[in-house]
Design a protein that fits this description.
about 350 residues; alpha+beta; Jelly Rolls; 6-stranded antiparallel sheet; 8 helices; binds 2,5-dihydroxybenzoic acid
């Protein structure tokens, strides 16, 4: 761009007076803000951050004695991005939280236009019911609550369960299309047996007359057991991606698209000793550590931060921030989610590898 000389003070004064006059007509000069609006590359308020599970587990459990799941409706500690405090955002477009359900509790049924994912962090055997079907949840399972479906959660096991919620709350807020309502009872009636959706849609088969009516996957629990087995079998080919190790995306089997329309979900295996190459992408990404330990270098040079992580930790990498994953003493498995499907649908998504 051309170098410009600063205008003289009287001109600046005339402009200010002009801005004030046009302000009365609900007008504002673009040239004062243009360079902050149309920027050469993403510069987000979202900051890199990590939540070590060992450091926050007590606080999560304490919520269990301060408020019931029923009173809270959803007893969740929001994972607040430190760059956007008070906004209930983990990235600019997405929300995340850690939800606790104690044995015997029910989080009452409701529905909303926001889509939700659950990623089970600790515990075994609690359930989510979605649209008349219950699914029992195990660590590492990825469970979907599609937009506008009734859902309630309960724990009939004898141990607390904690899962990470990921929702497109900020995105829906930006678009002003939030609708929500409560079900008249705590629990919705069940109309299908446990496991029905997975059998019907998640076995490489579809009912012969299946029609795609919504963009969300009809499979609403992707069990970790199957995902882990896929990674374990695939690793034998020794085809490691230099940045991602071995990375799979969850898909809607009826469309081949992302399992959820607004949130992309992924699972990756980093073999022991893996040292990833530099990578960045325009979708800010939330990671949950399922197995193993390692670290991620976030940023470049002197400004780089090192996030050491282990099982159950959560960390977030903002849009376009370069990072490298490392697995140290064991294989590591990382679940992640982002707004990638939205960016892709709009032709906006970018990534870059190596030193670009
Ligand atoms: O389980 O429906 O973390 O509606 C935030 C909003 C969970 C839920 C959250 C919600 C839910």
């Amino acid at each position: 761009m051309n170098q410009q000389t600063a205008p003289d003070p009287s001109v600046l004064q005339q402009r200010r007076a002009y801005y004030e006059r046009i302000g009365r007509h609900k007008l504002a000069p673009l040239w004062e803000v243009l360079h902050g609006l149309v920027i050469p590359e993403p510069k987000s308020a979202c900051q890199p951050a990590i939540w070590h599970y060992a450091a926050i587990r007590d606080a999560i459990m304490e919520a269990g004695s301060l408020i019931t799941a029923k009173e809270a409706e959803r007893r969740v500690l929001v994972l607040e991005n430190p760059g956007m405090p008070g906004q209930s955002k983990i990235t600019t477009a997405l929300y995340a939280g850690l939800q606790l359900i104690m044995p015997g509790e029910v989080a009452p049924s409701h529905r909303h236009t926001q889509s939700a994912l659950r990623f089970v962090v600790e515990g075994s055997g609690a359930y989510t019911a979605v649209d008349g079907e219950k699914t029992l949840m195990e660590e590492g399972d990825f469970v979907i609550t599609p937009s506008w479906t009734w859902h309630d959660h309960g724990n009939e096991s004898d141990r607390p369960m904690v899962w990470m919620d990921g929702l497109d709350i900020p995105l829906v807020q930006t678009l002003d299309c939030s609708f929500a309502e409560k079900y008249p009872e705590d629990s919705q009636p069940l109309s299908r047996p446990v496991g029905d959706a997975l059998a019907r849609y998640g076995s490489g088969l579809l009912p012969v007359d299946h029609e795609v009516r919504t963009p969300t996957s009809p499979v609403f629990n992707y069990p970790y057991r199957r995902t882990r087995e896929a990674l374990e079998t695939m690793r034998r080919a020794e085809e490691w991606d230099p940045c991602h190790g071995l990375k799979l995306q969850y898909v809607n089997p009826a469309t081949g698209q992302s399992a959820m329309p607004t949130i992309g979900t992924f699972m990756q295996l980093l073999p022991r000793g893996f040292s990833g190459e530099r990578y960045r992408c325009s979708d800010a990404t939330v990671f949950s550590v399922v197995e193993g330990e390692g670290y991620t270098l976030v940023g470049d040079g002197d400004a780089a931060q090192r996030f050491d992580w282990s099982k159950r930790d959560t960390f977030v990498i903002p849009s376009w921030v370069p990072h490298r994953h490392h697995a140290t003493n064991s294989d590591a498995v990382l679940f992640s989610f982002s707004d990638r499907p939205v960016q892709k649908a709009l032709g906006l998504w970018r990534e870059s590898r190596g030193n670009r």
